[in-house]
């Protein structure tokens, strides 16, 4: 049992090496053990490339007959861009397979386990499953909720302001925190902001290593012609506007016109459209009202609060999460809190959940 | 040197045993060492009772001639409620005195050290002084700034709200945090709130072990007749009203009428009056506007932010620190941050400072 945990943990570490590169696939790592010795390992490097278990099988320099395979996700049993891994495992003569968690994809879910068992292979499932689900939280959300995983990132003062009463917002947090936030963008498929953020800050919204899609909620199609993301990055730009907006032609840029509900573009529909276009995760960076829309629709899966150790005060200063607001009963509670220091700032990370006792 | 730190640390621990009981005196502890062995110790138990060094000298069961005295604050050299400790130290035959920090009281400051040296005693000062000053932060502020030490305590959501958009504020934080906050009241001479908090919440404002003074900023003298603190605790109640307020007789309760400045009662004058009446520390518990007044006047020495892991949202929801607000340039930065978990909530403690580079 202790050995199983040790090697499953190792599969997670291997899997994580490809963070940011496997989308829309999950991150998977595999370790092969024979006579209590690790003889091979592998991980899924990129969507379209061999799966982790195949990498591990191919990397083995000795015969793996009778070996044990550790893997953080149930192997596939269907033809995707690569042939089913289950068959290859059976062929290989592996005698035991230890899986952290079942694949949430209904095409696979439990089916591969059955197939392995039918072939006389011993299978253990479920140990270390919470951590394995967290590692692939984007993938699990996609499969189980049929929508992108939504992360909200904020940078605020201790008293919850994202700008001073006079309007200044550059910068609330320090350089380290800002760099860290840029790095976070590398993990997700797109960065989403409201049009006010574009008009006020004219941001670039790039990651450190990646240039993610930029999504702007712009009901009246007010995006300025010289906005950086429109001028320099139009092919990576997706705009959501209201059906009531005056049409404008924006070369190279995808504009979706959707119907307003209660005077707002419904974020649920925005997510649904993004999902149809292969976006698996959305990194929401504000502003105050945009973030609020996602919270009010119970569509936030993860939060990153960067908190600067300053006190701005101001009844009219912009609050980090505005909108209508929620009652104490309906507001989300943030669980699995992690608190870190990033430079002089703090970072509080957690998972909002809406079904309180 | 290492030994000096060890025993000075011990003096702080001893001193702290009387926390909440020595006001307006500082907390002081003393240890006596002879031939590298601790032979006695003591601490100042209560204002009017013997000072720590006298306790330690009296507690010694062997002759202390030639011994070393460790103490976290410079001994006194004046007649207060007890005779000068310096003379007693000289008489005792102690050969070395190790002092963490000088007494900020101008009547004593450095004078006792000179007197000890003149008597041929070896004196070391300054090791562990930062910690020693922090222990007696109230006393040092009183002496150096001639005003009470001001602590602001808040209970807010992650996004800085002290009430939901609908007005509910009971409760933002959990039971553990609320109990912890009540315990904090025991450390200070009075609890201060704005009249809106009294009207809205009708609080008792008591500590766990102590019944501190209650101070209410009530410009128009609107305090309800049946307010708990007026009805049950009038002798411990101090009200500040505007000179423009309609006079009202409030039996047993001290009411100070002061002149408004820019439409507000100036908190600087309130602190000055409290200081004159022997109040050494003020625990400000809100609301939003009252806390802001102290921040805007740069009169907050310490903050306790209790943060509940919930997200309330709401552009119009009450923010923890309201008022006019400060610019990024003028706003205080909070230093010496300490982050703790209290039940399901977080507590961020620190010291605001206003002079940024």
Brief digest:
2 copies of one chain form a homodimer. The first copy, chain A, has 357 residues and is of the alpha/beta class. Chain A has 11 helices and 14 strands.
- Uncertain residue segments of chain A: none
Structural class call of chain A reads alpha/beta
Structural shape of chain A: elongated
Give the oligomeric state: homodimer
Helical fraction of chain A: 25-40%
Numbering strands along the chain, what is their spatial order in the largest sheet of chain A?
Answer: 10-9-8-7-11-6-12-14-13
| SS summary, helix count of chain A | 11
User: Between the first and last Cα atoms of chain A, what is the distance in angstroms?
Assistant: 33 Å
Architecture overview:
- The structure is a homodimer of 357-residue chains.
- By secondary structure, chain A is of the alpha/beta class.
- Helices cover 27% and strands 25% of the residues of chain A.
- Chain A is built from eleven helices and 14 strands.
- Chain A has a nine-stranded mixed β-sheet with strand order 10-9-8-7-11-6-12-14-13. In chain A, strands 2-1-3-4-5 form a five-stranded mixed β-sheet, with helices on both faces.
- In chain A, strand 1 (29-34) and strand 2 form a beta hairpin.
- The radius of gyration of chain A is 23 Å and the shape is elongated.
- At the A-B interface, strand 6, helix 11, strand 13 and strand 14 of A face strand 6, helix 11, strand 13 and strand 14 of B.
Key phrases:
homodimer, 357 residues, alpha/beta, nine-stranded mixed sheet, five-stranded mixed sheet, 14 strands, 27% helix, 25% strand
């Amino acid at each position: 049992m202790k050995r199983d945990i040790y090697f499953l943990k190792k599969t997670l570490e291997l899997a994580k090496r490809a963070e940011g590169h496997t989308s829309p696939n999950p991150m998977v790592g595999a370790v092969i053990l024979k006579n209590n010795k690790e003889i091979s390992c592998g991980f899924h490097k990129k969507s379209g490339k061999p799966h982790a278990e195949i990498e591990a099988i191919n990397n083995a320099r000795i015969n793996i007959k009778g070996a044990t395979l550790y893997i953080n996700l149930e192997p596939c049993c269907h033809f995707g861009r690569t042939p089913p891994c289950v068959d290859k495992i059976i062929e290989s003569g592996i005698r035991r397979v230890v899986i952290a968690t079942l694949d949430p994809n209904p095409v696979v879910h439990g089916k591969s386990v059955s197939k392995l068992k039918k072939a006389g292979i011993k299978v253990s499932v479920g140990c270390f499953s919470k951590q394995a689900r967290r590692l692939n939280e984007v993938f699990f959300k996609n499969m189980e909720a049929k929508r992108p995983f939504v992360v909200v990132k904020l940078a605020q003062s201790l008293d919850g302001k994202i700008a001073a009463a006079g309007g200044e917002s550059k910068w609330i947090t320090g350089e380290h925190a800002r760099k860290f936030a840029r790095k976070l963008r590398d993990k997700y498929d797109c960065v989403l902001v409201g049009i006010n953020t574009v008009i006020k800050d004219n941001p670039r919204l790039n990651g450190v290593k990646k240039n993610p899609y930029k999504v702007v909620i712009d009901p009246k199609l007010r995006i300025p012609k010289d906005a950086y993301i429109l001028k320099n990055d139009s092919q990576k730009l997706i705009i959501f506007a209201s059906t009531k907006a005056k049409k404008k032609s924006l070369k190279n840029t995808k504009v979706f016109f959707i119907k307003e509900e209660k005077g707002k573009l419904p974020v649920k529909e925005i997510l649904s459209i993004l999902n149809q276009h292969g976006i698996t995760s959305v990194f929401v960076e504000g502003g105050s009202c945009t973030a609020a829309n996602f919270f009010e629709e119970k569509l936030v899966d993860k939060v990153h609060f960067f908190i600067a150790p300053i006190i701005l005060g101001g009844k009219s200063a912009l609050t980090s999460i505005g909108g209508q607001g929620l009652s104490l009963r309906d507001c989300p509670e943030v669980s699995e809190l992690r608190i870190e220091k990033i430079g002089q700032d703090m970072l509080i990370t957690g998972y909002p959940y809406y079904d309180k006792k």
